[in-house]
């Protein structure tokens, strides 16, 4: 589903972010991506979403070499990926409903279909009945759930999360991970970047570990304990 072959990324300023990274995530697999701040986690996710392009090597999504995806077609590729951020990136002057509906509005779904899908997404994350609320009125954990509902509302086959529990206490963090687990159980490929090793240790998933841009653990399908 997601394959990196000898992938390197050097930013225009000369900053080496990734060096000869190899790994393969199977369809439906759930995995963690860890490493210290600056190790290259965000860069790796940005290569998958084509926010950045690899300097060398090959990134394939669903068997497609994404270097061959033209700029015009990048939005179509991105529809297959639900992206979740630490800071939610919510529109605070819009309702919960409007925030979650946004990807469907952009795709041109009918009003009825949008209502149905937004309701289902909010139900899934445990926020049914909060459609008319402003995100401002919600707790940090609830705001994160709105961000997750928005990411999954068009049922993407891939979910990427960048420090999704960064601002949450351990109990809420675990709840969010359990939520990702339900998407994984439903067949979605899930990759979660986090430096919260305590959280990772409590779950059984493969952990890809980056150190200064090099993958130092988890490249194979054998579950490994992070080696920091
Ligand atoms: P992480 O997510 O693990 O903290 P990043 O992928 O954000 O790591 O960063 C990896 C390295 O690339 C760091 O040294 C960082 O400073 C550098 N970097 C990240 N983004 C850019 C950018 N847009 N331009 C130049 N250097 C960058
Ligand atoms: P944008 O439309 O924002 O320019 P692109 O994905 O086309 O987005 O490019 C993002 C960055 O990656 C730019 O700095 C661009 O020069 C660089 N870039 C684009 N394609 C490639 C490529 N095939 N190899 C290396 N760098 C690339």
Topology, element by element:
Elements: E1 2-10, E2 16-25, E3 30-34, H1 41-48, E4 56-61, E5 64-65, H2 74-78, E6 81-85, H3 96-107, H4 111-124, H5 140-152, E7 158-162, H6 170-185, E8 189-193, H7 197-201, E9 206-211, E10 214-217
Parallel strand pairs: 3-8, 3-9, 6-7, 7-8
Antiparallel strand pairs: 1-2, 1-4, 4-5, 9-10
Helix pairs in contact: 3-4, 3-5, 4-5
Structural description of this entry:
With 228 residues, the protein is α/β, with parallel strands linked by helices. The protein has a single domain, classed as P-loop containing nucleotide triphosphate hydrolases (Rossmann fold, 3-Layer(aba) Sandwich). It has helices spanning 41-48, 74-78, 96-107, 111-124, 140-152, 170-185, 197-201, and strands at residues 2-10, 16-25, 30-34, 56-61, 64-65, 81-85, 158-162, 189-193, 206-211, 214-217. The strands form 2 sheets. It has a 6-stranded mixed β-sheet with strand order 6-7-8-3-9-10, with helices on both faces. A 4-stranded antiparallel β-sheet has the order 2-1-4-5, covered by helices on one side. Helix 4 (111-124) packs across helix 5 (140-152). It is globular and about 45 Å long. 39% of the residues are buried. The model has no long low-confidence stretch (mean pLDDT 92). One adenosine-5'-diphosphate (ADP) is lined by residues 11, 13, 15, 17, 35, 37-43.
